[in-house]
Amino acid sequence: MEASTTIRKMMAGNKIVVPSYQRAYSWDTPVEKTDRNTQTNVFLSDLEEYNKSNAKSPSPYYFGHFLFEERNQEFYVIDGQQRLTTIVIFLSALFARLKAIRNLSEDEQFCYEDMVRRGSIRRFSTVDYDNQFFVDYVI
Predict the structure, then answer these.
(1) Dihedral (C-alpha) 101, 104, 108, 113: value to the nearest 10 degrees?
(2) Which end of the chain, N or C, is less packed with Cβ atoms under 10 Å?
(3) What is the pTM of this model?
(4) Chain CA centroid to CA 131, Å
(5) Minimal CA–CA distance to 122: which of 79, 74, 70?
(6) CA distances from 56 to 53, 59, 76 (A)
(7) Which of 103, 100, 71, 86 is nearest to 39 (CA)?
(8) 76 forms bridges with which residues in the sheet?
(9) Dist CA 122 CA 50 (whole Å)
(10) Nearest alpha-carbon partner for 81 in 122, 127, 133
(11) Shortest CA distance to 23 belongs to which of 36, 9, 39?
(12) Model confidence over 78-133: pLDDT tens digits?
């Protein structure tokens, strides 16, 4: 995997796994009358602010660093799993919404297959004890 790349290039053709020693994703639920935001809400707010600030001359969005260990043709997330899981949640929701309102274009279908799922092959798996929930409700 390249040291500096896009999310699509990072995930395309790869299997990314969160090893069992990592903590599970923080599945916070928004609570009324609190100013505490979920991981996904913070991510979406950050994207909105980035989009507004770069409206005239867009520059690549920086997702931060990810650290992986390659084993048996799989990439194990050493650092950045909360961010990466949030990105996959966002992409899954985005593609699900697009599919609900229209057919995906050929390029969008390729993006989906590169970043979320191609047939039965999922590009990303979270920790074992959280993965079934992730597959059932996100993917």
Answers:
(1) 110
(2) N
(3) 0.79
(4) 14
(5) 74
(6) 8, 10, 37
(7) 86
(8) 17, 69
(9) 29
(10) 127
(11) 39
(12) 998 888 988 898 899 999 999 999 999 999 999 999 999 998 889 999 998 888 88
